[in-house]
């Protein structure tokens, strides 16, 4: 017998359930408890960068919107730098941008929105330029382990050379990761649809 | 079913020191999907339409996954980890007073310091304070049912609450959830993000729960069951349960790798 390899095992995931809002967005559950709350607004008046709204729905295998889903996003700032000590890249830190937010879908429409800024491009470990993107994590009733995906931006020429998009085969599935730029009342809105299952199923990652 | 034994979970007791992860690129250890519930688990009916049919695309960790949000004490309020007091209106909530405590570790046995742990639960009668919960058991006017804590330098957290009750749900005609507390944990990188549920030692509803039995690995299931911890209880006040949480390990850090090689 060799020596035992005593790594611990990761704690198993369980669904967030239908009442995830109680813990993570109590105002949506219908009550006020914490002095400070996390939200879907990532920007302060001093945050650097182009203001954008991300707006979309998560659809189930019948094409119906999930109305009890919770999304979190994690992204770099306008200079392409994450607000985290292990990101030592050249971009400037922005003290007014944590880079993280969470949102529950509307209980009637299923719409999910984030007010944020468009992230800058990242350089990966191999020195390749990665197109601007937002990392997305999805939990809900019926989802046993959080789903990871990304949102890219329809107006970015850099998408064509992005090392992650180029891993997606067949190539026709790449479009499931692209949010579409539009404008409404003078504001930039990127629209997205996340299909959990079916013909246009979104690409999910094992990160 | 046996509850997890604290002596097997706590590296201070059964291992002289944490494993040292080999130098690497800062990526997380590959997630062992065989211990997690599959996306499609037909016994838990909601998963049928909400599970991808395509395979996940495996991604080597880049800076996008190795990093994650950083939280501090200024994000929290002073009563956030005390569910007995944080929604009290005219008295204490009704129910079994308990302390839940433990450590957030990674797979090498190291504590994960300064990470955010959030938790939520039903009240002692199994009723959630949520506008969509219509179970006939009453709301407790002094109980909100959520809290949060930052782990300390060793990865330790604790909170105080009342033990939640089981409740019925629409899966099979007569499905009841075991008593449980939902946990949300961040870790140091977004790829460690985890939501899970803690159960209580000895609960006979555990082996018949359609959500809990989505877990294919019996040991992984047992690790979600918190043992009664009499040593941590407060006489004439509260019982205690111990719940350790393990997040993915990491192959050193981006920063260390750069100083060594670049």
From TrEMBL, chain A:
GO terms for molecular function: ferric iron binding; protocatechuate 3,4-dioxygenase activity. Keywords: Dioxygenase, Oxidoreductase. Pfam families: Dioxygenase_C. Gene3D superfamilies: Aromatic compound dioxygenase. The keyword Oxidoreductase applies. InterPro entries: Intradiol_dOase_C, Intradiol_dOase_core, Intradiol_RC_Dioxygenase, Protocat_dOase_a. Residues 54-82 form the Intradiol ring-cleavage dioxygenases domain. Belongs to the intradiol ring-cleavage dioxygenase family. PANTHER family: DIOXYGENASE, PUTATIVE (AFU_ORTHOLOGUE AFUA_2G02910)-RELATED, PROTOCATECHUATE 3,4-DIOXYGENASE ALPHA CHAIN. This is Protocatechuate 3,4-dioxygenase alpha chain. It comes from Bradyrhizobium cosmicum. The lineage of its organism: Bacteria, Pseudomonadati, Pseudomonadota, Alphaproteobacteria, Hyphomicrobiales. The gene is pcaG.
From TrEMBL, chain B:
Keywords: Dioxygenase, Oxidoreductase. InterPro entries: Intradiol_dOase_C, Intradiol_dOase_core, Intradiol_RC_Dioxygenase, PCDO_beta_N, Protocat_dOase_b. GO terms for molecular function: ferric iron binding; protocatechuate 3,4-dioxygenase activity. It comes from Bradyrhizobium cosmicum. Belongs to the intradiol ring-cleavage dioxygenase family. The keyword Oxidoreductase applies. Residues 1-48 are annotated as: Disordered. GO terms for biological process: 3,4-dihydroxybenzoate catabolic process. Residues 100-128 form the Intradiol ring-cleavage dioxygenases domain. This is Protocatechuate 3,4-dioxygenase beta chain. NCBIfam families: protocat_beta (TIGR02422).
């Amino acid at each position: 017998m060799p020596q035992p390899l005593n790594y611990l095992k990761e704690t198993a995931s369980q669904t967030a359930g239908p009442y995830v809002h109680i813990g993570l967005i109590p105002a949506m559950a219908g009550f006020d408890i914490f002095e400070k709350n996390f939200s879907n607004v990532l920007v302060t008046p001093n945050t650097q960068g182009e203001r954008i709204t991300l707006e979309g729905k998560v659809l189930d295998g019948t094409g119906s919107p999930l109305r009890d889903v919770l999304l979190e996003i994690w992204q770099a700032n306008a200079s392409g730098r994450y607000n985290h000590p292990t990101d030592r890249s050249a971009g400037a830190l922005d003290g007014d941008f944590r880079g993280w937010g969470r949102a529950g879908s509307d209980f009637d429409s299923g719409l999910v929105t984030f007010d944020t800024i468009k992230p800058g491009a990242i350089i990966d470990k191999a020195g390749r330029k990665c197109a601007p993107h937002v990392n997305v994590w999805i939990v809900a009733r019926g989802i046993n382990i959080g789903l990871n995906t990304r949102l890219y931006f329809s107006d970015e020429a850099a998408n064509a050379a992005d090392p992650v998009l180029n891993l997606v085969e067949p190539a026709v599935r790449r479009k499931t990761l692209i949010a579409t730029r539009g404008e409404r009342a003078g504001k930039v809105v990127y629209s997205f649809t996340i299909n959990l299952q079916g013909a246009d199923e979104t690409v999910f990652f094992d990160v | 079913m046996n509850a997890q034994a604290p002596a097997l979970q706590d590296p201070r007791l059964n291992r002289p020191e944490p494993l040292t992860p080999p130098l690497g690129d800062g990526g997380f250890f590959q997630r062992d999907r065989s211990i997690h519930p599959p996306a499609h688990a037909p016994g838990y009916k909601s998963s049928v339409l909400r599970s991808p049919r395509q395979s996940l695309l495996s991604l080597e960790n880049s800076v996008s996954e190795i990093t994650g949000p950083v939280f501090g004490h200024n994000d929290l309020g002073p009563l956030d980890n005390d569910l007995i007091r944080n929604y009290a209106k005219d008295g204490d909530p009704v129910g079994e007073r308990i302390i839940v405590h433990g450590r957030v570790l990674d797979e090498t046995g190291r504590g994960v310091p300064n990470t955010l742990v959030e938790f939520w639960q039903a009240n002692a009668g199994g009723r959630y304070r949520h506008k969509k919960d219509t179970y006939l058991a009453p709301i407790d006017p002094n109980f909100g049912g959520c809290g949060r804590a930052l782990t300390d330098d060793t990865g330790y957290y604790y909170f105080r609450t009342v033990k939640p009750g089981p409740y019925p749900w629409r899966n099979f005609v007569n499905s009841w959830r075991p008593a449980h507390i939902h946990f949300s944990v961040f870790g140091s990188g977004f790829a460690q993000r985890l939501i899970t549920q803690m159960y209580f030692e000895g609960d006979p509803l555990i082996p018949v729960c359609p959500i809990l039995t989505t877990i294919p690995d019996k040991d992984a299931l047992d690790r979600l069951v918190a043992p009664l911890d009499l040593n941590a209880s407060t006489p004439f006040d509260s019982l205690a349960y111990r719940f350790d949480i393990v997040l993915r390990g990491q192959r050193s850090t981006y920063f260390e790798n750069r100083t060594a090689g670049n």
